């Protein structure tokens, strides 16, 4: 039996199972488990020993790569059977790479603990650091206790600005948790929507053909920016709407306080709100409702005064 890397007469390397394990990084137990599952081709039996070749080593490396990409052993078996049937894995792996690649042009950065503390006013808050690491805002650099990887410098910059405006660090992390859950829901719905209407025709096969997977990867590249563009546009619209309402509410409350009166929020039926929006536009709903209410109060005041005057006249006539 030849060892790892040794050449047989035909020039092909042959491996004992221990040598194959060393060359592939898998354990002997793992290799045998893959054989039992049908993930590895049957080795050649030579006497009392099994002989493995380069094809087995290549297959082990493929399995390791697919496991790193998040595939289960069951799905890997389907993909490898497609490969063996001549359908190819190039398109599938291209699709995986496209989906698992970065979904933003933002580049990760690094920051030292000293620089981080300085950005947040010089305070050394170990609890806030631990929370940031747990959320993935910061990642520890192996072997460097004083340095962090910053996956999204923009996200860190937002936290710095909020803290500078007076928001406590733990309040920022709590808000991020809530926001992340809502954004993940939006992402999930967008994925369900595009899968139903776009990707179902590519991913209906198990596994997809090489050409279908390649087309799906191309479609991912086209649709990838749409999710962020849609969220950006809708967030801008919603922020303008609610910020305008919020500001108007506080200005009216302040004005009423100055006049010695009390302001209470009034909830309008959805249909009424929609009708007003169609009439005057989203930005003028609050002003319209306030003006309409004021007009109604004035009309009722005039009616009351007129009614009181009429009653007084009748009393005078009877007298």
Characterization of the model:
- The chain is mainly alpha-helical.
- Among the domains are: 14-86, Orthogonal Bundle (Multidrug-efflux Transporter Regulator, Chain: A, Domain 2); 109-208, Multidrug-efflux Transporter Regulator, Chain: A, Domain 2; 270-318.
- It is built from twelve helices and six strands.
- The strands form two sheets. A three-stranded antiparallel beta sheet has the order 1-3-2.
- Strand 5 and strand 6 form a beta hairpin.
- The termini are far apart.
- This is MerR family transcriptional regulator.
- Residues 14-82 form the HTH merR-type domain.
- Stretches where pLDDT falls below 50 for ≥5 residues? 1-11
CATH class of the domain at 109-208: Mainly Alpha
Which assembly state applies to the chains in this document? single chain
**Beta content:** 5-15%
Distance between the termini: 133 Å
Q: Which bin fits the share of residues in helices? A: 55-70%
User: Could you tell me the radius of gyration in angstroms?
Assistant: 34 Å
Number of separate helices: 12
Mean pLDDT, to the nearest integer, reads 79
**According to CATH, what is the topology of the domain at 109-208?**
Multidrug-efflux Transporter Regulator, Chain: A, Domain 2
**Elements, N to C (H/E):** EHHEEHHHEHHEEHHHHH
Instruction: Provide the structure class.
Output: mainly alpha
The total beta strand count reads 6
Any idea what the CATH architecture of the domain at 109-208 is?
Answer: Orthogonal Bundle
Strand order of the largest sheet: 1-3-2
Global outline: elongated
- Largest sheet descriptor: 3 strands, antiparallel
Domain HTH merR-type: 14-82
Organism: Streptomyces globisporus
Keywords: DNA-binding
InterPro entries: DNA-bd_dom_put_sf, MerR-type_HTH_dom, MerR_fam
